[in-house]
Amino acid sequence: MFLIMLRDKITASLEAAFSQYGFAEPSVAQLKTACNVSLRTLYKYYPSKEAMIVGALEYRHQRYLSFLQNESPSCSVESALHIFNKLEQWMKEYAPHGCLSMNAIAAFPDNPHIMKAVEEHKKEVRLLLGQQIQREDLSMALFLLHEGVSSAWPVLGEEAITSAQKALLQLMERG
């Protein structure tokens, strides 16, 4: 039990460090310090920086899915607006520099392990978004709006949220 808790603590610390400093800047020594463990302990759970990144991305993925599902209304229109309200909260609190997954790909575009973790995350987010608004036919459009907000957030902030909500409501009215 202690080992699982230690691994979770390390993974959460890695996620926070990569979110704050990006992927290129922090050295393994800096990551060790951020995790408050020895280098040996860090490498026991994550034998490479690549493994640390993938672990942080997978941890963030689970946190994000849980976060989106929290307090989700049952009405499709309310649920659609709720998604973007939750996204706004997430961006303010956890992702002021944009989507961690896309930042990982930007830093390591040719890494197949990081690419796979990001692809799985994006696929599951798209499916969840379609389920939440009870409109599978709009899941890709909703996903693209969601991704656009995540990418535009550092520049546009709340304006990106408002625009995405309006666009989604227009799509829902048409269909």
Automatic annotation (TrEMBL):
Keywords: DNA-binding. Residues 4-64 form the HTH tetR-type domain. GO terms for molecular function: DNA binding. InterPro entries: Homeodomain-like_sf, HTH_TetR. This is HTH tetR-type domain-containing protein. Residues 27-46 bind DNA.
